[in-house]
Amino acid sequence: MEGEAGLGSASLRGLQVYFRKVYFSRDSARGAERTFLWFVSEVGEAADALKDGDEHKLRAELADVIAWLLSFCNVVGIDLQDAVVEKYGSGCPRCGSIPCSCD
Ligand SMILES: [Zn+2]
């Protein structure tokens, strides 16, 4: 998993395992609420980059968003791949269709 090649082909679960290796010790010490606030802060920075039309910054901020989200999931013990598959694995959870046919 270490190295750009391994990370580049990682599944969502693989990314979560990677961020556990990189940040779990620090983030578990920080705690769930403060780690979640960092995640929200990064969403705000991504929104600023979108508003500014700065595609390079948006790309970097979205990487931060997924890093903090997966780090938060590690702290609270949620396997995000399982959660996503459980909710969205059969298409849109509201209409059950692929593609979504909701209005
Ligand atoms: Zn739908």
From TrEMBL:
Top-level taxonomic group: Archaea
Molecular function via GO: hydrolase activity
CDD domains the UniProt entry points to: NTP-PPase_SsMazG
Domain NTP pyrophosphohydrolase MazG-like: 33-94
Keywords: Hydrolase
Pfam assignment, any one: MazG
UniProt-recorded name of the protein: Nucleotide pyrophosphohydrolase
Organism: Caldiarchaeum subterraneum
